[in-house]
């Protein structure tokens, strides 16, 4: 089935002015999500880091030359239970011309396996994830700012008393590094860090907007079933999440669960009754299920209530009126 006009994606952005909804058509730049903040010359506040943590049974893969990226990602995927061969993963992540791996390639590879990649936006979040039992993939600059030497490693623990960080790094398993040195090398790499988890499992430090953005990444990787699990997990944590309800509706629509999509969009409209984008998507789901007249009523309501999406609503109405086939075996309403 070909659909000329697709769903309108929306993304929740919080600000001091309230909750803003804007179109979300473009691919998220993962690097903009990673964030940068400052880790001091040791550990964060002692109230955050109190007890020694050393995660047991984190798989270790010794890296080959310049291939720390594939090795680090392989450790996290294996920790999640993936049976994989490192050479196959290397082909997805490693760039021979660069003699290294770019962050977007690592993120894309993890998503291809159906995992949610969540960026940590504060150094304190690293310790929060470790406390929850989640290893953290980090990027370090082991060289100088002007002469960088990039390196991926997996943080598996810390000792606040000794002020040491433990990493699977290079060819060394559970290597100890002073917190001061780790903080400097991590800061020179922009404090880039991620956790890789099953989509139904929320990071310990998850924030609503960042988690929804990570779920959108699964959608854009074509991992619809994984994205569905992520949005369901988001609603368990944030039952009134408008963005999660819209995302759930969009994914159910893509999976041809038009009744489920309608329920999700109607629940979103309970939170924002005059949102034209959601009305457009609800109309699409209704029409796909064969309920054209009800879909046209929803389009009319959207045109009355929300000028922002007028052109999209008009195009959707035109398509419905044109009586194009929406779904085989639908319940056509005349």
TrEMBL record:
InterPro entries: Peptidase_C39-like, Peptidase_C39_single_dom, TPR-like_helical_dom_sf, TPR_rpt. Keywords: Membrane, TPR repeat, Transmembrane, Transmembrane helix. SMART domains: TPR. It holds the Pfam family Peptidase_C39_2. The lineage of its organism: Bacteria, Pseudomonadati, Thermodesulfobacteriota, Desulfobulbia, Desulfobulbales. The chain crosses the membrane at residues 20-43. This is Bacteriocin-processing peptidase family protein. Residues 57-166 form the Peptidase C39-like domain. TPR repeats lie at residues 242-275.
